[in-house]
Write a structure and sequence with these properties.
heterodimer, A: alpha+beta, 2 domains, four-stranded antiparallel β-sheet, 6 helices, 4 strands, elongated, B: mainly alpha, Formate dehydrogenase/DMSO reductase fold, 16 helices, globular, Molybdopterin-containing oxidoreductase family membrane subunit (chain B), transmembrane (chain B), NrfD-like (chain B)
């Protein structure tokens, strides 16, 4: 992919989560859609303001869990019934109650890894480079005590001067241009 | 939950201690006066400082020295075989299984704090969950050592894993030993991933605050490029909750499976249905004791009293009181069932356990695990007495080790046939390896507190009063209040 150039978006910095949520709601009301909030801890109200509700992490986790239980149970059955049958004290070869315990553990193993790695993958991580890191004030605050709203240039409503004027009506500490 | 009830008029009964919330009479979860920046600075400062405290180096070297016991003990074991241990017939299971069950039990409190308390929305867990999870992982490392080295030919321990091999030999899935492999390896994997996922946002903070290039690079790689995007946070929270929901049955199942190692055997003293819940309660009991053993010196050394407050210690002591009572019930039930089952062997086992040649171990267990903790923990004064809690946590850890000792040894050495009775005596190699794992645990912990954020910064931020979001016209006035 060739390096992209130009403006990525406009980044407004706020001191409190309330100001951020308010600005995000207003931006959504004004018709902006391609935007993102950056906060040092999860702010649920910001997600509501962005109208972001559903994640597919639980679905990925469920699929992983089902894969885990099926894999483990079939594997155990195959191993202890066909591949390597052992007659221990005359117990039946298909003694499925004993197989449940490892199958249960693998359900948790697979679904746990699916939830964790699924979350990372859906978030598009690892992604060590991102344009917002170019903003001079972002690294100082975004992971400590500041709240950011980024209106992205790909939004059809985005215009450098108008969007800047829109963001400056809020009590933002600063509004800066973010380059790719 | 308030034990004192609401305070009266402050002018009549002035609250001297600023840590006590005058509305509830409870200790605060975080000391007043903290904000986003101060919390971050405090926690990140420990990791990012270039002035490592001398005490840390001293502790690390001592721990490394003790770990040498494990290295030497294992080397000699691999050269000579398990004959250097005190295990014989009938006492075929000695320190290896005792220490395995003890260590894995210690790990359980970490998962309990990070998972079950998260599901129950107990926000006080936030200050202690990170190092409790670290404790879990290091305890599982120590626990895992024992089954690995006790199998006789440890270089073949991987035969327990189902993998296609040229010999066409497969594991036996009806055996509790194979169940153990699945339970413990799953537990270790899920604990590590849960721990790491929890640290990603904090790695982001450390990356942004680091000044040295090596630290920037190190935490930058670990943070995966985390930038705190709201969409990321929502998925992150969802994954955390799912992992908590999965870890909760996992933590219960792991110790249940371990209790099956015993309960599946047709031996008086082991073959009981009470084992699974009783083992889990004991695990949580010893785990919380270990969290206290670690938390009390660490909060003192790193001046963390305002983040790990007396409220945390008090709550942990309450959990210990509850789980300790379950354990006491378990002991009572064992005795009762030995009598009520009218089984000659059960009855003899219990009598032998109490008054036989190893009766001293049983009474130490009752004293350290039941008598001392369960009489003192009812007192709120003692629950918030740091020195007392520290000593008590050591007592309970000892008691829980003796519980495993009593279960393993006194059930085995005098079984059905008097002609095959024997005894069990641990050798110096047993002790050396056991103490060595304690060194390993401490060593890993020293590395952890120095290089990783020991308190989750992002979760502490969520508990501050500044996080409250007010809507609409109030937003601007709220700004002034919280700024």
């Amino acid at each position: 992919m060739p390096p992209r150039e130009g403006v990525y978006g406009l980044l407004a910095e706020f001191n409190t989560p309330s100001e951020l949520v308010h600005a995000t709601e207003e931006a959504h009301r004004a018709g902006y859609r391609r935007m993102e909030c950056y906060t040092p801890y999860p702010v649920e109200e910001a997600a509501e303001a962005l109208h972001f509700h559903k994640t597919r992490v639980p679905l990925v986790c469920l699929i992983g869990g089902l894969m885990g239980v099926t894999t483990a149970f079939l594997m155990e059955t195959w191993i202890n019934v066909w591949a390597y049958p052992l007659n221990i004290a005359g117990r039946p070869l298909f003694s499925w109650p004993a197989f449940i315990i490892p199958a249960y553990e693998w359900t948790i193993l697979f679904s746990g890894f699916s939830a964790a790695l699924g979350m990372i993958a859906l978030n598009g991580l690892p992604q060590l480079y991102h344009p917002v890191f170019n903003a001079p004030n972002f690294r100082n605050g975004a992971t400590t005590d500041k709240f950011f709203l980024c209106l992205e240039a790909v939004d059809p409503k985005f215009s450098l001067s108008e969007t800047r004027a829109f963001l400056e009506q809020f009590p933002a500490v600063s509004v800066v241009e973010v380059d790719h | 939950m308030a034990t004192k009830g609401p305070m009266q008029d402050p002018s009549v009964d002035p609250v001297i201690d600023p840590m006590i919330d005058p509305r509830t009479g409870e200790y605060a979860v975080i000391a007043p006066g903290h904000n986003f920046k101060s919390v971050t600075q405090k926690i990140a400062g420990i990791v990012l400082t270039s002035n490592t405290p001398l005490g840390w180096f001293f502790g690390l070297i001592v721990a490394a020295g003790v770990t040498m016991g494990l290295v030497v003990g294992c080397t000699w074991l691999f050269l000579k075989g398990v004959g250097i241990w005190g295990v014989t017939i009938p006492g075929a299971w000695g320190f290896a299984i005792i220490n395995f069950v003890w260590w894995i039990g210690i790990g359980h409190a970490g998962t309990l704090i990070s998972a079950i308390l998260l599901l129950f929305k107990q926000t006080w867990r936030n200050s202690i969950n990170r190092f409790a999870e670290a404790m879990t992982i290091f305890a599982v490392v120590c626990a895992g050592t024992f089954p690995l080295i006790h199998v006789g030919r440890p270089w073949l321990a991987y035969w327990l894993f189902p993998y296609p091999n040229t010999m066409n030999v497969w594991p036996q899935f009806r055996s509790p030993l194979a169940w153990d492999v699945f339970a413990v390896s799953t537990y270790a994997s899920i604990s590590i991933i849960f721990w790491y996922i929890g640290m990603i946002p904090d790695f982001g903070t450390l990356r942004d605050r680091a000044t040295m290039p090596a630290a920037k690079y190190f935490y930058g790689m670990l943070s995966l490029g985390w930038r705190g995007s709201t969409r990321h946070w929502i998925r992150y929270e969802s994954a955390s909750l799912l992992l908590a929901g999965l870890s909760t049955p996992l933590v219960l199942s792991v110790h249940t499976v371990i209790s099956f190692d015993f309960a599946v055997a047709a031996l008086a003293g082991w073959h009981t249905t009470i084992f699974p819940p009783y083992f889990v309660a004991g695990a949580v009991y010893s785990g919380f004791a270990m969290v206290l053993t670690l938390a009390i010196p660490i909060r003192k050394f790193y001046h963390m009293e305002d983040l790990v407050t007396l409220r945390h210690l008090d709550n942990m002591a309450k959990v210990m009181l509850a789980t300790g009572s379950i354990v006491a019930y378990g002991y009572g039930m064992e005795v009762f069932m030995a009598w009520f089952s009218a089984s000659h062997w059960e009855f003899f086992m219990m009598w032998n356990r109490m008054f036989g040649p190893m009766g001293w171990a049983y009474w130490i267990l009752i004293l350290t695990n039941i008598a001392i903790p369960l009489t003192t923990l009812w007192s709120r004064k003692l629950r918030v007495n740091v020195t007392f809690l520290f000593i008590l946590s050591l007592i309970v850890n000892t008691g829980m080790w003796f519980e495993r000792f009593v279960i393993v040894v006194t059930s085995l050495y005098r079984e059905y046939l008097p002609s095959s009775w024997g005894t069990y005596r641990a050798t110096k190699w047993d002790y050396m390896i056991y103490v060595g794992t304690m060194g390993l645990f401490t060593f890993l912990f020293f590395l952890f507190v120095r290089f990783l954020p020991m308190i989750p910064m992002s979760e502490i931020r969520m508990m501050l009063p500044q996080t409250k979001v007010t809507r609409g016209v109030d937003a601007e006035t709220a700004t002034e209040e919280t700024a």
